[in-house]
């Protein structure tokens, strides 16, 4: 009888932690070691992670379905795998609700043998509002709980490309940075609020991007808390008019207080862009001011489009400044959108995109 109870309680313990799905049980152990340089990858699902350059990956934030095979593989390479965390801020102003959310995430991380969480809350927040304080508390309490329950785990928080209330996201960036392990700075979608001429522009112009890091550093945020996020996607804009000088005017689509935004275009993966540029009317062009590539093409209906994107040439100087500014590392949105097929040209383009993360 008592042996039965011992067995039963042992089973309960195993169930709560989950049964290790890896070939070797040690692969379920969470990663504890800290690496000098972060390469932070967002994975949105599928199996292309098998083709990542794992000699550089340090963290994979899983935004797709839970994939035990990915967790086991990442652990075999010493890389962390972290959950996605998102919640409507209005529902976590209440402390009990907040605690319940955090407990739920910690338990999920334990049962899936995950190494932390990436908090991706991109909601508009007014400075000094109840949500403003609740968000800061959420990050603090999540970090406390993860570090306590899963030693060595990593809690990261995604911030806009600049700390200046981009997209009405007015967060307490300073306290949030102090309250977690790192900020992933989303240095893209920088045309989400166009206040000047309504024209197609680069997703992440070099100088604007780098100036925004100085804004973060001027707030006295530790550079070792900042990971630079670069885009592995671009924007395809239908042009209302393409001027002689190659300026593409775009439809006025307002966003969070701005009359015009990149929502007039569509996000396109690098994989698609590399095919489209070959069949474009202009071929790849380079904008010196924004330090970014772009091209024009005509679709089947005769509509002219302008596509702005990032490639190794535009990413290189950004990656270099990660080193010169002493930041924690680099990452991208997202790891899956390169061409991981067998075509030798695509293979080389993919390899160059990975290598560009380490600088020129
Ligand atoms: C993977 O990254 C390393 C640097 O960490 C680099 O030396 C190597 O060439 C890359 N592998 C491929 C296949 O590009
Ligand atoms: C608690 O959270 C739930 C959703 O998880 C929400 O429906 C509810 O309104 C919240 N309660 C409070 C007091 O915020
Ligand atoms: C959370 O906030 C408390 C109270 O201000 C502070 O003592 C603690 O160090 C914070 N924890 C983290 C992880 O920032
Ligand atoms: C469209 O572009 C042409 C050629 O540059 C220019 O002459 C014309 O004024 C533009 N039209 C509008 C509505 O901007």
Automatic annotation (TrEMBL):
It is found in: Lysosome. This is Di-N-acetylchitobiase. GO terms for molecular function: chitin binding; chitinase activity. Belongs to the glycosyl hydrolase 18 family. It comes from the Eukaryota. Involved in the degradation of asparagine-linked glycoproteins. Hydrolyze of N-acetyl-beta-D-glucosamine (1-4)N-acetylglucosamine chitobiose core from the reducing end of the bond, it requires prior cleavage by glycosylasparaginase. The gene is CTBS. Keywords: Glycoprotein, Glycosidase, Hydrolase, Lysosome, Signal. Residues 1-17 form the signal peptide. GO terms for biological process: chitin catabolic process; oligosaccharide catabolic process. GO terms for cellular component: extracellular space; lysosome. Residues 1-360 form the GH18 domain. PROSITE patterns: GH18_1 (PS01095), GH18_2 (PS51910). SMART domains: Glyco_18 (SM00636). InterPro entries: Chitinase_II/V-like_cat, Chitinase_insertion_sf, DIAC_cat, GH, GH18_Domain-Containing, Glyco_hydro18_cat, Glyco_hydro_18_chit_AS.
């Amino acid at each position: 009888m008592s042996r039965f109870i011992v067995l039963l309680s042992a089973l309960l313990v195993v169930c709560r932690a989950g049964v290790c799905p890896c070939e070797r049980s040690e692969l379920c152990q969470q990663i504890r070691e800290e690496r000098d340089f972060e390469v932070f990858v967002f994975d949105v699902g599928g199996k292309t992670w098998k083709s990542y350059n794992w000699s550089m990956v340090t963290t994979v934030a899983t935004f797709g379905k839970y994939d035990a095979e990915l967790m086991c593989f990442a652990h075999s390479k010493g890389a962390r795998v972290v959950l996605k965390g998102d919640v409507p801020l209005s529902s976590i102003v209440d402390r009990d609700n907040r605690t319940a959310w955090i407990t739920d995430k910690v338990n999920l991380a334990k049962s899936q043998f995950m190494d932390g969480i990436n908090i991706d809350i991109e909601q508009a927040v007014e400075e000094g509002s109840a949500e403003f304080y609740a968000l800061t508390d959420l990050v603090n309490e999540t970090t406390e709980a993860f570090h306590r329950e899963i030693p060595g785990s990593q809690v990261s928080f995604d911030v806009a490309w600049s700390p200046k209330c981009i997209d009405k996201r007015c967060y307490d960036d300073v306290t949030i940075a102090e309250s977690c392990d790192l900020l992933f700075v989303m240095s893209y979608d920088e045309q989400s609020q166009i206040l000047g001429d309504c024209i197609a522009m680069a997703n992440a112009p070099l100088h604007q991007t780098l100036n925004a890091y100085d804004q973060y550093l001027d707030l006295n945020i530790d550079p070792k808390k900042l990971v630079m996020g670069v885009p592995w996607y671009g924007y395809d804009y239908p042009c209302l008019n393409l001027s002689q000088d190659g300026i593409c005017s775009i439809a006025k689509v307002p966003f969070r207080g701005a009359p015009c935004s990149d929502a007039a275009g569509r996000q396109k993966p690098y994989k698609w862009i590399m095919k489209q540029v070959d069949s474009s009317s202009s071929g790849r062009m380079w904008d010196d001011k924004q330090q970014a590539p772009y091209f024009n093409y005509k679709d089947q209906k005769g509509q002219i489009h302008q596509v702005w994107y990032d490639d190794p040439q535009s990413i290189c100087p950004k990656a270099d400044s990660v080193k010169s500014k002493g930041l924690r590392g680099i990452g991208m949105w997202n790891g899956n959108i390169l061409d991981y097929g067998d075509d030798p040209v695509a293979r080389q383009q993919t390899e160059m995109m990975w290598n560009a993360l380490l600088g020129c």
